[in-house]
Fold this sequence. Notes:
Elements: H1 3-10, E1 12-13, E2 16-18, E3 21-23, E4 30-34, E5 41-46, H2 50-67, H3 72-88, H4 90-101, H5 105-122, H6 125-128, E6 133-138, E7 141-149, E8 152-156, H7 164-175, E9 179-183, H8 190-202, E10 209-211, H9 216-224, E11 228-234, H10 237-249, E12 253-257, E13 263-266, H11 272-284, E14 296-300, H12 307-315, H13 335-350, E15 354-357, E16 376-379, H14 386-389, E17 396-402, H15 405-414, E18 417-418, E19 421-424, H16 428-437, E20 443-445, E21 461-462, E22 465-466, H17 474-479, E23 481-489
Parallel strand pairs: 1-5, 8-9, 8-11, 9-10, 11-12, 13-14, 13-19, 14-17, 16-17, 19-20
Antiparallel strand pairs: 2-3, 4-5, 6-7, 7-23, 12-22, 15-16, 18-21
Helix pairs in contact: 3-5, 3-8, 4-5, 4-8, 5-7, 9-10, 11-12
InterPro entries: Ald_DH/histidinol_DH, Ald_DH_C, Ald_DH_CS_CYS, Ald_DH_N, Aldehyde_DH_dom, MeMal-semiAld_DH
Organism: Tahibacter aquaticus
GO molecular function: methylmalonate-semialdehyde dehydrogenase (acylating, NAD) activity
Amino acid sequence: MNDVNRAAAAVATVKLLIDGEFVESRSSHWREVVNPATQVVLARVPMATAEEVDAAVAAGKRAFASWRKTPIGARARIFLKYQQLIREHMGELAALLTAEQGKTLADAEGDVFRGLEVVEHAAAIGNLQLGELANNVAGGVDTYTLLQPLGVCAGITPFNFPAMIPLWMFPMAIATGNTFVLKPSEQDPLVTMRLVELALQAGIPRGVLNVVHGGEDVVNAICDHADIKAVSFVGSTRVGTHVYQRAALAGKRVQCMMGAKNHAVVLPDANKEQTLNALAGAAFGAAGQRCMAASTAVLVGAAREWIGDLVAKAKTLKVSGGTEPATDVGPLISCAARERVESLIAAGVEQGATLELDGRRPVVPGYEQGNFVAPTIFSGVKPGMRIYDEEIFGPVLILLAAETLDEAIALVNANPNGNGTALFTQSGAAARRFQEDIDVGQVGINVPIPVPVPLFSFSGSRASKLGDLGPYGKQAVTFYTQTKTVTARWFDDAAPSLGVNTTISLK
Length: 507
């Protein structure tokens, strides 16, 4: 065995989960999971075969027959146990996430915690999966609804939140009585698989949760499979549009959360220091790899004078490996991602935007091979420039100018995306007008990343979302259940005959 083969053999392989067993894939196609700060290979992940996808779905279909009959309290208690296990393993999960994805340890814990909130919500399923009853709608007739599970559901998750977004999906689907096939991102599946192990430890029965890995072929197999009833997706607009069209054509329920261009509108009366802190954190945190990143700021009126202060604030952020103390900005997920961000920065310069702060090729001691881009700021940006029209998905903040709040609102509403937006102001009147007139699904008032807690639902809109329902909260219960309406009348032996009724009415 040569040195290359020995090195490959020494790297762990990521398993599939099929029918309660972690199994080695028989695939001939594998890719490496790489630490983005060091380029060290952490594991090899398989591109599952068509037969393995079929086996995972078949396991879910078999398990559904009994799981759908499991009492709702028994389902809830599994998720009570699951949230406890996640809390106990928070440090381990964050370390895994940082190693494969690059986030700082603090941000990795936040990733896990925001998913944990949905697990806690799933534990309250007894209060969420309630039908309705109307008593005596006609003579002795009652009508009521049942919220029943669909069957086998599937989730396709992205690289940027490998803990939170899987936890958005399978807990709510399983708590409502469905079984689930999860396809994590092939770029960073390790923390997802550890969460899956803990889910089984919490008591999820065999076949109720299954995991396959892969790329386009596996995604298409999920979209096409006749036994999968619903698909949830979070990722790029290009892939999300494909998934929605293909899965919907196959007759499935589909929800796709996709790309964004989130604008933060800054009025000159805003608290300056708090606003600068919020913009820097929301633009550059997670190296800008958030679909809810505040990547675009619209400076209104005198707030345009804050550019120098914003640049100074960005320069204070530490760029390093995610495990280093006090790190603010870690690496991008891959060399290809870094090259794409750098090319967009170059395009911004070529198209006439002013490069206020250039973060290309920073020197990061000890991490010379890392995929780093430091905080970057452009001013003088206008619609039509690539850095405005495209989602950069890196630590790049672009600044636009507006004379008035009305002009800023019109600018935001003209953008096709509708994931999130924020207004920074101390004026209640301005805030109320903004939240009423802005055509964006999630609005923050002095909150830069307005992702709601699971008591509500993620509510992106327009080009950022396909499908009517969000991936967690009350909308997820609706998405993962079928409403069945029952109209019932019972007679006792002494009741007089009502005779034959040939009309459509109830008597």
